[in-house]
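Morning - pyridoxal-5'-phosphate inputs below, output right after.
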Amino acid sequence: MDPDEFRRRGYEMVDWVADYLANVAEYPVNSHVEPGAIRDALPAAAPEHPEPFVDVMRDLDGIIMPGVTHWQSPSWFAYFPANSSGPSLLGEMAAAGLGVQGMLWSTSPAATELETVVVDWFVDLLGLPEEWKTTGPGGGVIQMSASDSSLVALVTAREVATQHAPLDKLVVYASDQTHSSVEKGARIAGFSHVRIIPTDAEYAMDPGALASQIAADRADGLHPAFVAISIGTTATTAVDPVRAIATIARENDMWAHVDAAYAGSAMICPEFRRHQDGLELVDSYTFNPHKWMFTNFDCNLYYVADRRPLLDAMSILPPYLRNEATLSGKVIDYRDWHVPLGRRFRSLKLWFVLRHYGAEGIRYHIREHIQLTQDLAMRLNNDPRFEVVAPHPFGLVVFRHVDGNEATTDLANRLNASGRVAVTPTTLGEQSAIRVSIGQTTTSSTHVNALWEMIDNAGDGTDI
Ligand code: PLP
């Protein structure tokens, strides 16, 4: 494809995406294809000969689109948002067009330096500790996912702790609400002891239970090494008491890692920062702009309070990567900050988003999503047929039908089968519940009112 054809097809593709986004509200939110339907419609072998681009676009529309779930729909209330925006998509396109590998400063200085500027900006934007800036002892880096960040935190903690005890004595602590990526990361990093700490009535980790478990483990000759603290759990957006847990971690010489994958975005609004009180005591922190900050997947920020143990754990310099800039010690090589070598120019889209919306624009939308959530929670609370089952400090409300598990699951299934909305059926302990997460870029009161009307009708068995 020469540049002229690319230009022509590129304009068509921008039209295709713009049309999609303009009409996404009209699509059934969940795809209802049967398993295997998309595979069956595609040839078993890759094309041997070139095919016209129009045929590719025809199959994108005809074969792929029926199997797409419309995460960008304003009626997307499932899981957490994976929201996006025009400036983000354009930044992504610029990054793909440049096609640079930013593994070393020298392989594309702008990729490294823009990333440094943007991650440092976020320290101020989210009210994070000043020491986490690159100018301090810490620093931030953009990775693919929160799971990657948590894995890196676990590996770094392992390297620190094995200076004092063998790997098979190290213990990782998480709550029964911590995201599964921590347990998975612990497994990958080679930890054999993971303790699941109980949570209180609001699904926040119980620091007393943590302290008791640590004491018991010490008495058994084990070595507490790592604790995961959640600000905004996946099930209910519960917030662990950061200060209390981080204090216990300090007293026990453990690594304290904060997972704010979803709720980190809310910290751009100062009124929510009370939920992150105590961050100056933790060692690492992760948050996903690709969830709720209008930046398309993938884009995760990872911060450490002290970058030395991270670099000790992750740096390796084979002869083919040696270069003058690296040896001068004057530059950052972000390949030393995570697992992969190659790295995309992810900071571009985040920079585009920040410049397009400004912090005040992002605050406006986040506050609106949270307000819509509080309004929906109030309606549910005021209706004797429903019960809100957990605190809802951000953009997620979790509720159930008072008639029990079957009525709750039936309600979720009917909402999803309608094609007009997507919600997530879940369980909390023994109870079925429905998660409604409000955070899509274009979701407004119209969409939330329509959802409420459906819940209201379905709640007493009427058609929705
Ligand atoms: N942590 C929390 C609290 C989450 O809610 C999620 C995903 O929803 C993750 C981690 C994993 O995020 P990622 O997909 O970026 O690995």
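Note: The mean pLDDT is 97.

O.
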